[in-house]
Amino acid sequence: MSRRCELTGKGPMVGHHVSHANNKKKRVFRPNLQTVSLASEALGQPVKLRISMNALRSVDRSGGLDPFLLEAKEENLSGRAVKLKRQIAKKQSSAKAA
Q1: Dihedrals φ, ψ of 59, to 5°?
Q2: How far apart (Å, rounded) are the C-alpha atoms in residues 50 and 33?
Q3: What are residue 43's phi and psi, to 5 degrees?
Q4: Is 2 inside any structural domain?
Q5: How far apart are CA 49 and CA 69, in angstroms?
Q6: Phi, psi for residue 27 in degrees, rounded to 5
Q7: In a 3-state reduction of DSSP, which class is residue 81?
Q8: Distance between CA atoms of residues 75 and 71, nearest Å
Q9: DSSP state of 77
Q10: Which pLDDT value is given to residue 98?
């Protein structure tokens, strides 16, 4: 399981731990990833994703999983999230046509 957010693509970063004496040691800044279950209104079912808590705030701000995925760039999304985005777009386009 990779340490990468499925919605934003946020991953680990490398930097220095700097002491008071200005000694530098390598360290890793890891994203706060959690497995959450988000409800998709178009699909009518919950979807489990491993996302950063920053992404969860972005999902809430955009109005839910469906609007967030529809406006997200595919290059930032994981393979599962891209499939979800296409399923949601297909459901919404078929609902508008009917």
Answers
A1: -65, -45
A2: 6
A3: -85, -20
A4: no
A5: 12
A6: -150, 165
A7: helix
A8: 12
A9: S
A10: 67
Other C-beta atoms lying within 10 Å of the C-beta of residue 81: 23
Instruction: Name the pTM for this structure.
Output: 0.86
**CATH code of 59's domain:** 2.30.170.40
In 3D, which of 63, 7, 71 has the Cα closest to residue 36?
7
Count of structural domains, the chain: 1
What is the per-residue pLDDT for 96?
Answer: 80
Domain assignment of residue 7, yes or no: no
pLDDT digits (tens, 9 = 90+) for 15-62: 999 999 999 999 999 999 999 999 999 999 999 999 999 999 999 999
* Domain housing 80: 13-97
What CA–CA distances, in Å, run from 52 to 43, 70, 75, 77? 23, 18, 17, 13
Could you give the C-alpha distances from 57 to 41, 63, 87, in angstroms and in order? 18, 10, 23
